[in-house]
Amino acid sequence: MAVKAVEIRNLSFSYPDGTKALEEISLDVSEGESLGIIGPNGAGKSTLLLQLNGILRSNSGSIKIFDFEVKEENLALIRKEVGLVFQDPDNQLFMPTVFDDVGFGPVNMGLPKNKVEEAVHQALEEVDMLELLQKNANHLSFGEKKRISLATVLAMQPKILALDEPTSNLDPKHRRGLLDFLKKLKITKIIASHDLELVLEVSSRVILLDKNKIAAAGETLKILSNEFLLTTHNLEVPASLLK
Amino acid sequence: MHHAYLDEYTDLNSLIHRLDPRIKTIILFTFIIFIIMTKPGIFLSFACYALILMVLILFSRIPFGFILKKSLVVIPFVLLISISIPFIKNGRIIADYTLGNFKLRVTYEGLMSFFTILAKSYLSLLCMIILITTTKFSELLKAFQALKLPRIITLILSFMYRYIFVLQDELMKMQQAKESRSIGSSRWFHIKTLSNMIAVLFIRAYERAESVYLAMCSRGFRGEMRTINRFEIKTKDLFFLFIIIALLLSVKITVG
Q: Rounded to two decimals, what is the model's pTM?
């Protein structure tokens, strides 16, 4: 049996102001699997991702990452294993130069100087952005920022990659580049997106969140071709699946 | 968006640009200390310092016009603060003005300290301008860090440098959105919307700070900011440091 990378049991969460964001979520993700999270705006997709590395902590229920419960004493370990890429690259990139940004995670992991540099070079090479090493994030295009955001997380060599809207606002060429990259990447992936074509290509399994609950779960092709299901949840069947 | 006005000439490749940022910072701060320590009225030493600075600017290959333009920005503030000194300071009276029953006296000592302040502040300013126009802001921050400037200050500067342009972009976009929808309304209306926009900008800045903090935590931030620098002091750097300090000392000793 495959190793469980993520195990979520009866997870509920509401924001401090009382807004319910997640209700009774239970979910397993096996190692190496690629899971898509789809659903209308405000369904709780981003909130679920933020739970995965303990940025937001649930009121009830539990999350385990490779058998480690998400709780205070495991946070350092869990944040190394779960690489979370935020939707807005201006939030993801907060250091003066690209080098410092990509090196931020590795430095926090306590790697020595030469290992940090190695990790930075390798991560930037993977996203094909090595020539921007000394640039300032203000001087980058949106597509470049998105790719470097990915590199900031890859540099920590996570076992699970959690992406929030990775293709939003990308032009077709950058989007295609990202898609191909994700398809090649062998680690566990959890992708929250409205881009159903992306989910169709990259994910083998999908969960549909609506009104803070899991409305449906199953094989990508099965869910994404179910017109009735998708339209009742404010989504639509991807064009490539229509005859 | 491209904002270049902070790092306009920092990409040049000159003797000054290539200096180790820590050494450069030390050199220019030492320079400022020497300038400040000069006794009032010894204009020959100011001239010597100015000459050394000119040579530094020449070496740095930054256009004189650019440095002049930058330096003039601060002069009005210095004037504003020091303009009253010739009238207040006691000493030999060299001019007397009477405006109704209001008497103004200009003293020689006052005038001397006025010119001294002007010279000192202008020369110190030139030092700072040379430092920031020949060093990338990010390198400057690391130099400050390496020189043990309090972490909190370098951090604030670092985030400011990263996000000031982001906020500026947001303000610009709001401005454009407003322009597109306001046709022929009164000036008072524009002023009112401006105050709303400032409020929105504050809220956005606050929310962004929150998101950035979350992003930092996600990448293992535990309350302590660490960065690595790749500075390396070469013989050339030390050589330069000694030359400048020797020059400053000889000016100080021979001229005063």
A: 0.83
